[in-house]
Every structure is written in structure tokens, then in C-alpha cells.
Amino acid sequence: MTATGIELRGVRYAYRRSEVLRGVDARVEAGEVVALIGPNGSGKSTLLKCISGILRPREGSITIGGEPVRGQRQSRIARSLSYVAQTADAVYPLTVLESVLLGLRRASWRHDPADLARAEAVLRRLGMADLAQAPLTEISGGQQQKAAIARALVRQTPYLLLDEPTNHLDMKHKRDAIEILTACAREQGQGVLVVLHDINIAVQLADRIVLLRDGRVMADGPPQAVIDPPTLHAAYDVEVRVVEDQQAPFVAGYRFQQGGQA
Fold first, then answer.
1. Could you tell me the domains of the chain?
2. For residue 257, what pLDDT is reported?
3. Kind of pairing, strands 159-163 and 81-84?
4. Is the separation of the CB atoms in 43 and 212 below 8 Å?
5. Is the pTM of this model over 0.85?
């Protein structure tokens, strides 16, 4: 484990009496893309909120660059990582460009030319330059999600945490999002932890996949080691067909069990 990474050891969290995370060990290195997958209710979103300081684990430790998250102010944590929630933030009467500039967290609304150039460059990268002056309230849900991603990218923090960033995006924009997140790791050395429901996107995007079930890590490794029929069947309770491709495996189909029969 390098001093620049995010590390979780024995992390537990409960909503009242319902334990959601049950002793999770995980890590994210600088320049690495880690996909977090698993059935609904397995604790994926809760895990991201614990790392970002939104929630406080009941037990265990979380460190960023060797520094414990517990006890740190939210503003200090925010200097190390950017967090994109599963759904777009509350929509304010701002333009898309203004909403992205919010990511820079300046003390006033006045931004110098360098800030504007930085925000405009991120919007171009996401294919949203033509929407820079569009009201955030008048664009689609998918475009609002991309604006939230832009707000995280403009901050250029060492780590990115994203909860279902491809929600509401069509195939082309999903591809664009994958390419951008991969570039963040490969070209800028950022560590990326991303929650995904689409296993095939996880395989294409990630260096490593962490599979959660019932608040525990069921598997952690490269895609080829995690994406196999027995593991996925144990995690999701469905029979899947995995096709081995020259580049990476992918899930080609699945079928549900009925009446105890596959």
C-alpha cells in the first residue's frame, strides 16, 4: 500500500439496527480505476459516503494518503477527493457553466480567467460546451449528471468517487464517460473508485473490481478473476454466461432461477 492511496480496514456501518457494511477491507491506489459492483443493498453507496466523510463508520479505519478520515473536517477531506452522488444534486437556477464553477469552491462568485478556462475545458471534454450557458433546470437528467461529473473533474483532486456516473446516459455518452475516467487515472494519476451496476462497463473501465454482497467483500481482483459464472451466480443469484474476449470477459446473457430450478 502506498502512502498516496485510500485504504479501508474492517469498516462497519449500520443504519439504526440494520448493519450495512460488515468489516470491509478495500483500497484504491493513485492512477488506478477500481469498480465497485454488487447487488442492490450490498453497501456500495454507503461505502462511498463513509470514505467521503458524509457518514461515520461504527468501526474500522479509513485513511487517505495515510491520514485518517475520522476527525477531519469536511473541507480538508474535500481537498483530497471529489464525490459524485448517484443522482444529480438538487438543481439550482444556475447555468451549466456556473454549476461547474461551484466545484472550485471559491469564496466569492468572482472567478479569474484561469477558472473559466478550466471549467470550459472540462465541458468541452464532456461534449457539453454548447450547453455552457443553458439553465441547469432546463437540461435532461443525463445532462445534469454529466454536469455533476464536470463539477468533480474541474477540481482536479487526487481521488474521484463516483456513484453510478453512467446513470441516465445513452451508449455514446456512457462510452465517453468511461474514456474520460480512464484518462483521469492514466494521464493524470488520479485514483478512481466508481460504483457500477453494469458489469460490462466495469470490466472495460476498471483495473480491479471489488464485488460486495451483504456488506462484505466477496471478491477483489482484476476483471478476469472476478467476472466468472460461479462468482456472479453466488453474488446475484442468477445464472450468467460469460464470453471470453481477447481484451476482456463480458457477460453475454443471464437467466433467472424459477422454483429453485436454473
1. 6-256 (3.40.50.300)
2. 53
3. parallel
4. yes
5. yes
Question: What cell was used for 14?
Answer: 449500520
| pLDDT per position as a tens digit, 140-160 | 888 888 899 999 999 999 999
Burial label, 53 (beta-carbon count in 10 A; 0-12, 13-18, 19+) = buried
pLDDT band at 104 (very low <50, low <70, confident <90, very high): confident
